[in-house]
Amino acid sequence: MIPFNKPYMTGDELYYIKDAVARGKISGNGYYTEKCHTYFKEQIGFRNCLLTSSCTDALEMAAILVDIQPGDEVIMPSYTFVSTANAFVLRGAKIIFGDSYTNNPNIDANHLEKLITQKTKAIVVVHYAGVACDMDKIMDLANKHNVYVIEDAAQAIDSYYKGKPLGSIGHLAAFSFHETKNIISGEGGMLVVNDERFDKRAEIIWEKGTNRSAFFRGEVDKYSWVDIGSSFLPSDVTAAFLYAQLENLAKIQTRRKMLWFNYQKGLAQLEENNFLQLPYIPEDASVNGHLFYLVCKDIEERTQFIAFLKGYDIHCVFHYLSLHKSPFYGQNSGSQELPHCDHFADRLVRLPLYYELDMTHQDRIVELIKRFFSKINS
Ligand SMILES: *Cc1c(COP(=O)(O)O)cnc(C)c1O
Question: Per the database entry, which stretches of residues form a coiled coil (predicted)?
Fold first, then answer.
């Protein structure tokens, strides 16, 4: 059986967890949390970051930081995970969905400006599959209209836009270390703070609305309730697990990218024949090997495709359903047309891609995909 995903354990996780336990302090903001923060700052170049219990948490922190008030509008793609929207809905925001490009599920920057109103507070971009959004255009637009940009970089570790790491461009960014992502800690995430105006408050919101972090640095003589907040910080056991993964980031990325390019090479002929569509990588974007997908002709073909591979014990999954058509959003939003988002929601399939995917197994997947599309198009 070839699963869709298999979380990769580097082998060092228990060593660091054991050490965290031996240190006798396993709550949040401890030794390994600090080591992870330092890694991200020094090795990737993030200005300031805070580990969280999930990317969802980091997005919720971002919504609090940009001070979303009931009635504020937040623009984002409809082709995304629910957390991108929920974090802002929880603070009373009205979500305005933008459409995808025709050749890429990311939000179409050329049609963003008409969505901006007096009430727009933020634009949330999602780097789908770790492929960068059109950040120059989006940042220019945001600066022109004085709105914040938050990067949902859940899938975007070790990916770049014009040489800049994704997550370092918007005012704030959120990463995920869920077990389906490249670097994992079971559940886990991180908020990146690129705009220094948010530094102080981010730390307070992270620590339940208290100035506890400043207290431990000796900056205040007692710690108090100073703002809203929650328990967004992960335990140091989670951070210890993540640290083991971070030390192996280069190795993990080399393998995942190799598998990604194998799929691209193996399936290129099918795209040339117009049998399917493969991921489009804009010139300014990089590949981080997060996920490989193909786009079928229609929903029926996709259903057949998934069933065909399932018959050989190979598990593929489709992905996001258009949020603008979801039961929660659809009922109070009228009838918005986002055809390119629907295009991907109906046709996109994700192929198995994980560190331990055997190359002979991958060759077999590619052969079977070729067989399926040759047959259906003959
Ligand atoms: C995985 C993912 C999330 C949620 O991450 P969690 O860490 O599970 O909260 C949010 N947005 C996108 C685009 C994701 O892929």
Answer: none
